Amino acid sequence: MRVQLLPSTFDGFEASQRQHLTCFVIDDLVAIDAGSLAMSASPEQQRSIRDIVLTHAHLDHVAGLPLFIDDLFSSLTEPVTIHAGQAVIETLERDIFNWSVYPRFSELSNGNGPVLRYESFGQAEEFTVKHLTLRAVEVNHRVPANGFLISDTNSTIAFSGDTSGTDGFWKLINSAEKVSAILLECAFPDELEDLADVSHHLTPKRMGLELEKCERDCPVFVVNIKPMYRSKVLAQIEEMKLEQVEILEVGKVYEW
Ligand SMILES: [Zn+2]
Q1: CATH code, domain carrying 215
Q2: How would residue 124 be classed by pLDDT, with cut points 50, 70 and 90?
């Protein structure tokens, strides 16, 4: 499985490591979240991605979604399918695709048919998207949010999405047959623990406590580090000398 965290910004022509937005692309075909999808997808990815799986409806995870559909509007020969929990779908329709912030694409068609459709998934329920099998698990964020276990025929990887301390995510990982990599969020440095608490995110110290629940020795890649605190978070994680932990590189294609 090839996984790439799309860049949010660029330094010249190089992908910047500052992650303002979240959008992972799997095998150039399926997007997990859509924060930077319209802005950073390659032309090939833009042509092939028609399925987007959402962890939750926060802006940094969906900002590129309306723009992506807008860009493709006249050329779509099949609708873009958004796979999300029912509460997330309701938020998108009420707060984004509401004719005030952006058009309600779910009511619009081009010459080939509808341009946007929704598929809702239940918690702990297995569902398929293209060649991938997914299992959603509720995580601990300010709004309804999911992590996922995602498998193809060769490997399984876990995405925490945005979360604070959570047990279900680790239970799912520990019960899986095998896990090749875990992508775990860590938004704020330790000194901003109060902010992490109120916004339901992790700090390096809290991440360390989470990892004690993990019975896997697979690599853990840290994602979703708030750009303004990146160097602090990196230094604190480095200091913890956690063997299985590394920082996920923005823009790099990983193969698991
Ligand atoms: Zn969030």
Answers
A1: 3.60.15.10
A2: confident
